[in-house]
Amino acid sequence: MLFRLTGGDWKIILYNLGRMLHLLSFVFLLPLLPAFLYEELDTLPYFFLTSGLTLLIATFLSHSFRTEEQMELKHALCLVALAWLLTSLLASFPLWLGKACSSFLDACFESLSGFTGTGLTLAVDPDHLARSLHFHRHLLQFLGDGVGIVVVSLAVLGRTEMSSVLAFRGEAREEGIRPSVIRTTRLIFGIAFTFFVLGALLLTLAGIYEGADPDTALFDGICHSFTGYATGGFSPHSQNLMYYHGMVYEIVAMILAVIGALNFNLHYALLTGRKNEIFKNTEVKVFFSTTFLLCTLTTLFLFGKGIYASTEALFRRGVFQLISAQTTTGFYTIPPLHLVLIWPLSLLLILSLSMLLGGCANSTSGGIKSLRVGILLKSFALELKRPFLPRSAVIGDRFHHLKDSPLTSAVVRGAAVVATSYLLLFFSGTFITAAYGYGVGEAMFETASALSNVGLSCGITHPSMPAGLKLTYMMLMWMGRLEVLTVLVLLIALALSLGRKVE
């Protein structure tokens, strides 16, 4: 039977939500650094107000609902889902007050898109936006998707064992890396920060090489490193990576995106000398195999249609876009409208498929994830063998993911439930988008981008987009980032709690 949350349960959730918001209130002050550095003093009130409001709510919750009870799995799951919504709502205030977006709804969309690592944008004029507001947008992606600050906050607060959340995959890194939660948290930050620094340095040098002035190259390098490793896709420029028109810059961004899309535990395995893991891991094999296959199909279609003639153009336009889609990064090197005006519908569908597949589990990428795809493929192959084997034969299979594991019915069922949930949401979102008058191919593409937290757009996502569609995509971004089930737990708990009150 589905659990009902009592008043005591909600007290535990709201108390810990308040404690987590205490930490986030200081995070919202980080954009003050570029505000002072670039003398954008008019933006200071936006961040002080947001931080102060967050601190006020945090203080109210932590004092009004104080409890010594420890969180259980059901509390942690509801807390994670609530935290994503409330944090995104609070983070929207600087964007709204700074007129980065034309309405409060658009600012909420932008903030949620940032915090979920999606990258779909409703920013009115990114090219003339204050750098402190750009820093705020890009920092949201790095903290929300790059290091999974919600679960990191839970770990730091010490109110629940991280394993309880990770076992359900509400957010962040599934397998325990180190026995200590605090050590694991430090490791997450350490690896993310290392890749951020390396990415920022290389992107800055690449920007200077491509002709940008050092100041612009440095700021863009920091922003693109934030969103590259977080597979987020935000950019300080309306042209995204097209601003640089350079292969070197695009290659560095592509490598950073692939690193972000790889399993976080694979990073740790490689750092601790387990170099063979990258060749044995089922998930890694599926990720690179599907990426290579879809890249090949994309290149063949583009070449066959005569859209791009040179090898360089095929790589920079076709291969880059496919990798951007598969890693769910959302960087682009072609104008969004080219996807519907120049590229054939077949390629739009290939990109939609790659976005749904996504990157690896326990990474910064979204989608169904390569590990689940690999499990389902192995299960499918096993069922194909079954009719050709003797009735007395005991058949089974294993998969390697950090260790050899049996392919049990529970594992297959878990992968199938998440994959089915994604597909149901995908078709629902496609239907809603098409109902607003958009083509089915475009609707599938934009829905896959929102659901898998990608950020690529074929032109549908725009400030003039209907409010109903904005809300639909916000729901898809939220549910996709938390892999559907966590949000369902919260919604069911709310419904049952409200139903009991009505009774």
Structural overview:
By secondary structure, the protein is mainly alpha-helical. The protein folds into two domains: 1-172 and 466-503, no CATH class; 174-458, no CATH class. The chain is built from 22 helices and two strands. The chain has helices at residues 7-27, 32-37, 44-64, 73-97, 104-115, 131-146, 149-157, 162-168, 181-209, 214-229, 247-261, 264-271, 277-280, 282-304, 311-326, 338-341, 345-357, 370-385, 409-435, 440-451, 467-481, 485-502, and strands at residues 398-400, 404-406. Strands 1-2 form a two-stranded antiparallel sheet. A hairpin with a 3-residue loop joins strand 1 and strand 2. Residues 159-179 have low confidence and may be disordered.
User: What percentage of the residues does DSSP assign to strands (E)?
Assistant: under 5%
> Using DSSP, what is the number of strands?
2
Helical segment count: 22
Main pleated sheet? 2 strands, antiparallel
**Helix vs. strand class:** mainly alpha
Number of domains: 2
Rg, please? 22 Å
Helix percentage: 55-70%
Beginning-to-end CA distance, first to last residue? 18 Å
What average pLDDT do the residues reach? Answer: 89
SSE series: HHHHHHHHHHHHHHHHHHEEHHHH
Overall shape: it is globular
Give the neighbour order of strands across the main sheet.
1-2
Extract low-pLDDT stretches.
Answer: 159-179
